[in-house]
């Protein structure tokens, strides 16, 4: 795949894998008989979402040297995402993730990433720091901080981006992505120090209430946003599930967007669609209110579909939903905005 003539619009870094999702809803995983296979991993889905909106995108990650790794790289290319920095780890399998689907708001996830995942074996010396520094948006996640050498690589990328701030840089986004099962003893306290270090380099932080509490210790949305701003970012975005989205910037601009109603099929990809659309809006230099409303609509679309990566909307779909939405359809529920 040929890359863009200039810097990438978006480079994401972190998890990749295969989502094995039931094709039956409301059925316990033990009883499911049919499944679908999809490209997965939150930063990978964000990359696909941004590419669907017309952005030039690449992912920094690693797969196993196995058929699922082949599938992931092929799927990235088919979605228009550059895979030049997707390399193989011979000793560990490409992760798979199963879920159960109990709409509207119960979607348990089962991660198979043992003894470790290839995307956590990214070394600092392997990074193309010039490309990361040049990217208009760089997106990283909290999961990338949970183990070495990924933690060192993620912090190296952030530090290089800050040290070599280029005129074209738009945002360095920290997806809080707090996943207790990936951390020793699931301890938020263990995560706070690397989270603080990463926040000092980021310009945007985004996460739901549980992720915000994991990162800051604050559960109340406005207090969480203020804590993220105090940690160094310029824009804090807190997804509040049924209460909508709160965004606060360092200048004091507060945006509160109500939930966009949708009949939920699978809420797991909504947060990733939100992320890709957030990148798109930031790159377009839209006003804060427009960015958040657009991202919220993109998330709602994906919450109404089964898959994550394959479900990411095109710009015309988001525009159409924003233009036609006048109120909740019967029996609808706002999406959770929970990333996969």
- H-E order: EEEHEHEEEHEHEHEHHEEEHHH
Rg measurement, Å: 18 Å
Largest sheet: spatial strand order: 5-4-1-8-9-10-11-12-13
Residue share in β-strands? 15-25%
- Report the uncertain regions: 326-340
What is the CATH superfamily label?
Ribokinase
| Main sheet overview | 9 strands, mixed
Helix content, binned percent: 25-40%
Which whole number gives the mean pLDDT? 92
What would you say the CATH architecture is?
Answer: 3-Layer(aba) Sandwich
Class by SSE composition: alpha/beta
Care to count the β-strands? Answer: 13
Shape: globular
CATH topology, which one?
A: UDP-N-acetylmuramoyl-L-alanine:D-glutamate ligase
The number of helical segments is: 10
List keywords for this structure.
single chain; about 350 residues; alpha/beta; UDP-N-acetylmuramoyl-L-alanine:D-glutamate ligase; 10 helices; about 20% strand; globular; disordered C terminus
Describe this structure in words.
With 340 residues, the chain is an alpha/beta fold. It is built from ten helices and 13 strands. It has helices at residues 42-52, 67-78, 129-134, 150-163, 188-201, 209-216, 221-230, 270-283, 288-303, 315-324, and strands at residues 10-13, 17-22, 35-40, 57-64, 81-89, 96-99, 109-112, 137-141, 171-175, 204-208, 235-239, 245-249, 254-257. It has a nine-stranded mixed beta sheet, with helices on both faces. Strands 3-2-6-7 form a four-stranded mixed beta sheet. Helix 5 links the parallel strand 9 (171-175) and strand 10. Helix 4 runs parallel beside helix 5, helix 6 (209-216) crosses helix 7 and helix 8 packs antiparallel against helix 9.
């Amino acid at each position: 795949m040929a890359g863009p003539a200039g810097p990438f619009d978006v480079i994401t870094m972190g998890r990749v894998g295969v989502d094995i999702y039931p094709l039956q809803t409301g059925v316990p995983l033990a009883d499911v008989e049919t499944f679908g296979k999809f490209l997965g991993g939150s930063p990978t889905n964000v990359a696909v979402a941004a590419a669907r909106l017309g952005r030039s995108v690449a992912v920094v990650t690693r797969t196993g040297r196995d058929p699922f790794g082949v599938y992931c790289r092929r799927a990235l290319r088919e979605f228009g995402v550059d895979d030049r920095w997707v390399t193989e780890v011979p000793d560990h399998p490409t992760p798979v993730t199963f879920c159960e689907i109990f709409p509207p708001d119960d979607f348990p996830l089962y991660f198979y990433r043992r003894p470790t995942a290839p995307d956590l074996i990214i070394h600092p010396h392997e990074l193309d720091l010039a490309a990361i520094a040049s990217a208009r948006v760089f997106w990283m996640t909290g999961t990338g901080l949970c183990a070495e050498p990924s933690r060192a690589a993620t912090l190296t990328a952030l530090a290089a981006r800050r040290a070599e701030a280029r005129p074209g840089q738009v945002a360095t986004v920290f997806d809080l992505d707090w996943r207790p099962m990936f951390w020793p003893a699931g301890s938020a306290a263990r995560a706070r120090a690397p989270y603080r270090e990463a926040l000092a380099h980021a310009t945007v932080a985004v996460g739901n209430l549980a992720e915000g509490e994991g990162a800051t210790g604050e559960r109340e949305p406005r207090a969480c946003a203020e804590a993220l701003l105090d940690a160094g970012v310029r824009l804090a975005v807190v997804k509040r599930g049924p209460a909508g989205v709160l965004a606060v910037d360092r200048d004091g601009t507060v945006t509160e967007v109500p939930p966009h109603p949708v009949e939920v099929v699978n809420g797991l990809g909504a947060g990733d669609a939100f992320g890709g659309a957030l990148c798109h809006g930031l790159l377009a230099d839209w006003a804060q209110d427009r960015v958040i409303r657009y991202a919220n609509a993109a998330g709602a679309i994906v919450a109404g579909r089964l898959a994550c990566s394959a479900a990411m909307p095109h710009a015309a779909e988001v525009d159409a939903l924003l233009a036609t939405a006048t109120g909740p359809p019967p029996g609808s529920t706002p999406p959770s905005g929970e990333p996969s």
